[in-house]
Amino acid sequence: MNFLTTMPLLFGGGTTTTTANGKSSYTMIIMLVAMFAVMYFIMIRPQKKKQQQEQEMRDSIQVGDEITTIGGIMGRVVTVKEDSLVIETGADRNKMKITRWAVSTNNTAMEKAEAEKAAAKEAAEAEKNKKIEEAAEAGKAKRKKTKKNKDDTFED
Q1: From the CB of residue 85, how many other CB atoms can be counted at a distance below 10 Å?
Q2: What confidence tens digit (pLDDT) does each residue in 119-136 have?
Q3: Using CA of residue 119, residue 125, residue 128, residue 133, what is the dihedral sign?
């Protein structure tokens, strides 16, 4: 049998017996459930995670944070209310009232996160260098000890 003749048998079409037709309907239901599960884990779940992170970012905005709106306006938060923010923009400190959902990024939080990542990276690199130096010193001490032992054996 080739692929074209087996497809109608799998999905309930064509000439089948009643037992095969029942099995093919179960197969079709299982395939649809599997496709829905794949779609959920590939498309829906990551989108919900992203929306949740954005909402947490918007809820954690404080006075003094620098933000960027969806429209590209950058400013510093002056007042925080339940569903709106007042920001200052530009050198002449124009004030604008915006809604929370219009905030695209919290630049202050992003800078803090980048600084923490850089500090962690530097600490890991310093620890690595320290271990390398300790290993090198231990190797030198071991070589000196073996050299001293060899010199002692020649003197006897």
Answers
A1: 23
A2: 999 999 999 999 998 888
A3: negative
Whether the Cβ atoms of residue 110 and residue 65 lie closer than 8 Å to each other: no
> Coil, strand or helix: which one is 92?
coil
- The CATH architecture one would assign to domain 61-106 is Roll (2.30)
- Which residue has tokens 């309930």? 12
Segments of the chain assigned to CATH 2.30.30: 61-106
Q: In 3-state terms, what secondary structure has residue 89?
A: strand
> Whole-prediction pTM value?
0.54
- DSSP run (H or E) holding 62: none
In contact, 81 and 112? CB cutoff 8 Å: no
Amino acid at 110: M
